[in-house]
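dumping these here so i dont lose them again. two proteins, back to back, each one seq then structure tokens. dont judge the mess
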Amino acid sequence: MIGPSSDAAALIAYLQTLRSEENVAAMARFGIVTDTALGISNPDVRAVAKKVRKDHLRAMELWQSDVREARLLALYTAEPKRLMMEEARHWANDFNSWEIVDCAADLFVEARLDELIREFAANEREFVRRTAFAMISGAAVHRKDDPDTELLAWLPLIEAHARDSRNFVRKAVNWALRSIGKRSRACHAPALTLATRLAESSDKTARWIGKDAVRELSGEKLLARLN
């Protein structure tokens, strides 16, 4: 049995008992890096996280294992208030999969490590740069008490990287733009203006990002909700 007192080694051993080769093959089809995967679904990893609760030092040890599910468990059980920027940078150096990035971005947003957004966006590595825009999207969705002006301040950064054609970057840039635009009436107009400008770009990637965002931000249901 596992519980709050279980150490990292015990948890990794438990995760090994849940291994599913069939699920590993299925994950690969969704672009998940499976070199060290055990084939455990995210909901099942979250269920383990609920049983063992948060433990920051143990999360650091879980991350060192390099096992996909152990790293997800590390992200789910780290303590946001104790997470330091240097620790986040260290983890970012290991990012090699979009799902790990997106889970980490939620943690970084909760830890309010916003200073890392520009730093990560300036990083040329695909998954580190994706982290910046996943963080922007996460802040737009989850930090409802933050002033809209703080989200709007990220629009120039979105525009600056809208020509990065790498799949996991362009999708995250698009995601960030749409998330800001859907946040509130105050955010909608500036985001739609940027989306429209990108949709008219001569650059193929920027044009895709813009057109896709315009389509969602012009939807009747969204406009009705914002009004």
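---- next one ----
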Amino acid sequence: MKTNAKTLIMYYSLTGHTKEMAEKQAKKYNAALVEVKEAKKRSRLNAYLQGCVQARRQSSTKIDEVNVDFSNYDHIIIGAPIWAGFPAPAFNSIVDLIPSGKEVDLFFLSGSGSTAKARNKIKKVLSRRNLKVSKYMDLKG
């Protein structure tokens, strides 16, 4: 990454672990930080029951409005928790917001697993949106 690049970090966090990592990354890159929230707040139980099914299907979810001028940023980082081996549905909603042609870094937090089995599917979704993945990180959280 260029040291003078303007960086945006967009993330979704249910329990706060992804938020902590996003805040650390924001300090590291001197980045703007945007928390994406689902329009209907999930309980942990709903995240595990319904959310995991949606994550495995790579479904999006309705999110609160996000006002970002993506043309102001050279570097975009997206963070999300892993549910059932896939990013939480809000991740797909974030991806839908990113303008075609942008380069993105991804970080995913998981308590026990990783996205190893889903990595190619995740990259394919971004590729279809004409987004280039420059960095991909599975982190334990």
